[in-house]
Amino acid sequence: MATASFLSSRIFLNGSRTEGFGFQSSDLRRLSRPPVLISIRRPPPRTLEVRATGNVFGKNFQIATYGESHGGGVGCIVSGCPPRVPISQADLQVELDRRRPGQSRITTPRKETDTCQILSGISEGMTTGTPIHVFVPNTDQRGHDYSEMSKAYRPSHADATYDFKYGARSVEGGGRSSARETIGRVAAGAIAKKILKMLLGTEILAYVSQVHKVVLPEGVVDNETITIDQIESNIVRCPDPEYAQKMINAIDAVRVKGDSVGGVVTCVARNVPRGLGSPVFDKLEADLAKAALSLPATKGFEFGSGFAGTFLMGSEHNDEFYTDENGCIRTRTNRSGGIQGGISNGETIYMRIAFKPTSTISKKQNTVTRDGQETELIARGRHDPCVVPRAVPMVEAMVALVLVDQLMSHRAQCELFPINPALQQPITNGSLLMPELAQ
């Protein structure tokens, strides 16, 4: 910098005054630099991409549900299903029949057969590995039942929040907030349940453990031996006959008054392999909680000892380890609910999901219109006085979807190379495979 300043000063002092600024034109040419070319590139035009959020669940075994309560139909598209899995329409229909409306006097009287159609992804009774499309038509819509609700919001329903978010909504049947959306989940869950059963012998069973103030006492049902026949032996899906009748009576009492009640669904998953779940954001219980709480009308989730565990000390709550007669490391108790550190430990997984009372009731309630005017509303339409009996297959489906998704993730990461036999067990056991898959 000093040298440059010195040269510039000399040129200025020694230059001819005839040039007007103390330097000659030759000096200017000597100091000039080649011209610098600056190229300005215009950025490519931006494109606005809108992603339809909230309709897809899962990472490896992925489902997308579609349709609305009073539209042409509902369904799902399953992506990532392994090929060569024997699946039929009957496999799906069994689960859909458990979910469908009009089953008994304690469910909605809407009459739908919920007959499913498999439109793609299955050939000659086997999955092809390509997307599976399942469609169920709506056949018993009554849009005129919702005329009052097009003007006023149902208290505690999604009517208002859909308007707040989108500025528009499907009035008839609640649109996507309707429980008919869960048809796609149950259909996809049926596929997931069959994969788990065939591959691992995993069983997923849910049942009603509470309706309003009727609570099934702890220990009345053995989660290790409970069967689907016990659960399906009555219309409320409580495996204990005595308490089942009390629950039915509780629902009947509010049904005739045009009111509703809530309850709790307990779900158990047996023969779940070790190792499912990943720290820290993909913990197994975190995925199960999201899956369960994505169902309509859910208000709470707990697994293992849940909130009751907060009343215990560590010495009381800890599940002590032991080695069984087969040399397998087990826990003497199961307050962890089959999950420790977000990873399954091989014990039975159990959880409880709370459902609120159905918000659409035929009793007069105070509310406001869409333009903010206070008014009274008596809702019409056909709705469950208690959602928990029909929620049972929905809960099972969501748990199955999580377990299959986590199973595929585990095998892709942890069994790509040979396992450490001193600490790990292979997830799959060839002896558990059905003949169709063992070939």
Automatic annotation (TrEMBL):
<dbReference type="GO" id="GO:0010181">
    <property type="term" value="F:FMN binding"/>
</dbReference>
<dbReference type="GO" id="GO:0005829">
    <property type="term" value="C:cytosol"/>
</dbReference>
<dbReference type="GO" id="GO:0004107">
    <property type="term" value="F:chorismate synthase activity"/>
</dbReference>
<dbReference type="Pfam" id="PF01264">
    <property type="entry name" value="Chorismate_synt"/>
</dbReference>
<comment type="similarity">
    <text>Belongs to the chorismate synthase family.</text>
</comment>
<dbReference type="InterPro" id="IPR020541">
    <property type="entry name" value="Chorismate_synthase_CS"/>
</dbReference>
<comment type="function">
    <text>Catalyzes the last common step of the biosynthesis of aromatic amino acids, produced via the shikimic acid pathway.</text>
</comment>
<keyword id="KW-0057">Aromatic amino acid biosynthesis</keyword>
<protein>
    <recommendedName>
        <fullName>Chorismate synthase</fullName>
        <ecNumber>4.2.3.5</ecNumber>
    </recommendedName>
</protein>
<dbReference type="InterPro" id="IPR035904">
    <property type="entry name" value="Chorismate_synth_AroC_sf"/>
</dbReference>
<keyword id="KW-0028">Amino-acid biosynthesis</keyword>
<keyword id="KW-0456">Lyase</keyword>
<dbReference type="GO" id="GO:0009423">
    <property type="term" value="P:chorismate biosynthetic process"/>
</dbReference>
<dbReference type="InterPro" id="IPR000453">
    <property type="entry name" value="Chorismate_synth"/>
</dbReference>
<dbReference type="GO" id="GO:0008652">
    <property type="term" value="P:amino acid biosynthetic process"/>
</dbReference>
<comment type="pathway">
    <text>Metabolic intermediate biosynthesis; chorismate biosynthesis; chorismate from D-erythrose 4-phosphate and phosphoenolpyruvate: step 7/7.</text>
</comment>
<dbReference type="GO" id="GO:0009073">
    <property type="term" value="P:aromatic amino acid family biosynthetic process"/>
</dbReference>
